[in-house]
Structure formats: structure tokens, C-alpha cells
Amino acid sequence: MRVIVAGGHGQVALRLERRLTADGHAVGGIVRNPDHVDDVRATGADALVCDLEHTARDHVAGLLAGADAVVFAAGAGPGSGAARKDTVDHAAAVLVADAAERAGARRVVQVSSMGAGSPPPPGSDDVFAVYLRAKAAAEDDLRNRDLDWTIVRPGGLTNDPGTGRVRLGPPPLGPGAVSRDDVAAVIAALVVGPHGIGQTLELRGGDIPITDAVSQL
To answer: How far apart are CA 107 and CA 97, in angstroms?
Structure first.
């Protein structure tokens, strides 16, 4: 199948692209910065240069034409201000969902964040509060669409090697860390199969093999 990953140069996205292409899927990674094209191509994916903050829906829909599934893995990233939390984590997610509907790509997996939809933890700064609200607004938008959607809220992300074992299920699972390798593996399993459609899922490290965690949804 053909899968398009928005935010294709992110740390989880690159792992996801590499995994999907290794499994024989055709993958396209949307990147804003042309300097990131080679990194995406190194995973075996096609690189699609597009700034989701300054692009019309129909152009994005053209990029999604022929796709069977879309993963929204974009984010403003650490160090960005409150304004970009809204334009990337919320508005770009809405744009991609609009484009998916337009292009007929029904399967959409949205990478959100543990804590979205809840008050920020005590001591959080204002920008983090805006980030959580932006993620929650993107989730709400996707839930109201006639798409085969799944929302995944990972816990604290680490660069530890993947264990292949996680906890995955409806909130609340409680806080916990999870490796980016394992997040990519979970998303890869979700996006090519029927499990988890219409569900908001939290994800952290655990003791259940990923194949079992996904198939039990």
C-alpha cells in the first residue's frame, strides 16, 4: 500500500518510513525543508517538499492522491513558540485531514501526545499548555470526520533501542516513557491494518508484544 507521512523528517517519522519501506510499502514523506530530502530518501521513501503552514488544501490533496493511508506526525518541535504550536500541531493537522478527505485517503493515523485534552501538569510553562491545547483541538477535529482514523498519544519519547513490547490502549494508561523505535513500530502496525479505527490510544513502554497489543484492540 502507499502511505504518506506528514512531518516526514521527524525522529519517529524517519523510523516509520524505514520500517514501512522495508515491509514493501510505497512511502512518501512530506518535509518543509529541502535540506531534509536526502534523509527521507535514505529510508527508501519518496520526499515531498511542502510547507504545511503555507499551503492550500488542494495542493496537499494532490500530494496525497493515490495514497491508501496518511500519518500525521508533524510538530513544531522543541524551542518553537506558542504561535507555531497552533499553526503546526493544530492547523496543519486539520489541513492534512481536509486533504485526505479530498484525496480519498480514508485511513489516517494522527500522532498526538499523552496529556492532550487534560490540564497541563503543575509547573508547566505557557507554551506547553498551548501545545496540549493544540493537540487536543487537532484530535477533536479528526474525531468529527468520516475517516478511518486512529489517534495515538505516546508518552515521553526516548532514543533507547526498541523492546518490541508496549502498553497500548484507551486513556488513561498513566504516564510512562516509550522509545521512538517502538512508537514507529506501533504506528506501522496500525496504519496498514484494521485495528484501532475510531479509537484514541495511549502508548508507553510495557510488556505486551506490539503485534499482540495492536491485534487486541
So the answer is: 10
**CATH superfamily, region 2-215:** NAD(P)-binding Rossmann-like Domain (3.40.50.720)
Q: For the stretch 177-195, what's the b/e string if a residue is b when 16 or more beta carbons lie within 10 angstroms of its beta carbon?
A: ebbbbbbbbbbbbbbbeeb
What 3-state class would DSSP assign to 209?
A: strand
Distance, CA of 30 to CA of 37 (rounded, Å): 9
- Whole-number Å distance between alpha carbons of 178 and 165: 10
pLDDT band at residue 125, thresholds of 50, 70 and 90?
A: low
Task: Answer whether 0.90 is exceeded by the pTM.
Answer: yes
User: Between these two residues, 81 and 21, which has the higher pLDDT value?
Assistant: 21
Rounded distance, CA 150 to CA 200, Å?
6
